Amino acid sequence: MTRSTKAGKARQLNAAYAMLLGEVPLPEAMRRLSREFDLSERQAYRYLEEATHLDGPVAVSETTIPITLKLPGGTVRVLRAYARSSGLTMGAIVTRALAGFLSTQRRHG
Fold first, then answer.
1. How far apart (Å, rounded) are the C-alpha atoms in residues 92 and 15?
2. Cβ–Cβ under 8 Å, residues 58 and 47
3. What angle (nearest 5°) sits at the alpha carbon of residue 60, between those of residues 11 and 22?
4. pLDDT digit string (tens) for 83-107?
5. Largest Cα–Cα distance of the chain, in whole Å?
6. Is residue 80 in some structural domain?
């Protein structure tokens, strides 16, 4: 079995949550999750157990792709400081900044 991505884990957790909402008996829910996502029954049980604490489905994030950027040292220092103070990752900050910039570019050409 391969390790799940964050998006995969979210989908598995949402499937477990849906089965709990649908009142699928626990043994049947474990078997279904195990078959559908190629999980061990033990791991399927863990997803079901975690899903019992949810108030609703979790967001499924888009898969990320690592890239390498070269930035000026001063920009990196400011980025790291902002990441520490905001609790966001540098990747999340750069993603938001690029999304904002690129959305203005689409409007202008």
1. 26
2. no
3. 45
4. 999 999 999 999 999 999 998 887 6
5. 57
6. yes
Domain identity same for 10 and 41: yes
Q: Which domain holds residue 26?
A: 6-51
Per DSSP, the three-state class of 91 is: helix
Residue 10 shares a structural domain with residue 45? yes
Contact 78, 71 (CB under 8 A): no
Q: What is the pTM of this model?
A: 0.60
Q: How far are the Cα atoms of 1, 13, 17 from residue 39, in angstroms, in the given order?
A: 7, 12, 16
Amino acid identity of residue 19, one-letter, is M
The sign of the CA dihedral 82, 84, 89, 90 is positive
CB proximity list for 19: less than 8 A, separation 6 or greater? 29, 32, 33, 48, 51
Q: Of 64, 65, 81, nearest to 73 (Cα)?
A: 81
